[in-house]
Amino acid sequence: KEGGDKFGSGELILPFVLQSAEVMKKTVSHLENYLERLEGSTKGTLVLATVYGDVHDIGKNLVKTILSNNGYTVVDLGKQVPAETIIAKAVEVNADAIGLSALLVSTSKQMPLIINELQRRGLKFPVLIGGAAINERFGRRILMTDDQKLYEPGVFYCKDAFEGLSTMDALSAPDTKLEIIEKIKRESNMEHERAANEVKKEVTATRSNIKPAALIPTAPWWGAKVVRGMPLEIVFKHLPKNELYRLSWGARNTHGEEWVALEKEFEARLDKMTREALTEKWLVPQAVYGYWPAHAEGNDLIVYEPESVKAGSPKQLERFHFPRQLGGESLCLADYFAPVDSGKMDVVAFQVVTVGQAATDRFEKLQSAADYTEAYFVHGLAVQTAEATADYLHAHIVNELGLPKNQGKRYS
Fold it and tell me: Is the pLDDT of residue 9 over 70?
């Protein structure tokens, strides 16, 4: 509990919390040999899963560890779990709550689908949600289902595992359960009123003053290419150390002498891990990238089939609708491209990168061995190496297009 409180106040970084969780797990495991086991002695049961289509589970696994260490029974269904499997298991074990995790914006859409299905079936499981792709506002929005009724058992956004624990504790006590459910209902109604006002603003938002580039570069070729065997030692030169240390390795709120000491520790760890990655080849940067002709139309980017453009009859391959900034300069990504009525054909580059399956295998092996701290560091380095790969490839694209240094931006 003290570790969780210090993490919440920013006094303790996540790797140290994981270390304390490992110690507690081993301690409890040892003590269980001497304690009388009582059937049904649990604070409650949580069915936990990463939603369908999402393979990220480091946050979910931390939730499992923290709740299990604090007296809850956690039924972990793993990652990429279909809605039906989650609901069926919750019914089977008579769960006290369901926990859903998602890292991606696209997969977070599974969450309202599950809430709506629970509502349709008349089931009464409180739902805890978390992950990088969502926030409290998202939770308040999906509390209202498609039938325009609030999901009475509640949808609770938890920013981290410890908030998940405090939410489960609150739901376990009848008086606090009613209190937090009423609170999120009020907030949900306020959120829907605010969202309705934002829609009205978006309709009236004007185009920004951004002018498309006067000189459009010539694509060296059209379509996509696969790139294998990218030089890891050069990719590492693009590694964003600040993001690695402060975001992926958890030192966001560390400052002063404590930061100086921690940075030195992280530098030594990074040196060791990068040397291991080069020797053992558990980070393998690869990519697919390419160039396509494109136009802007309002807030949309229209991407064309290259051969059709060559033939003089552009055929739409894909259309991307981008949001427009409601305040400030009313920016929208589509504004950076030549409009469809400009008489000019623009070019857009797309890329997708990976650091390979071996990184995932290494992480999962460490997780299975309950080496959560090392798994956390491996996951963080893999994530930021993927970012470094994207930056390395972007620099290659800028060079390939012959762009000046101040032109050509990467958005993700």
Answer: no
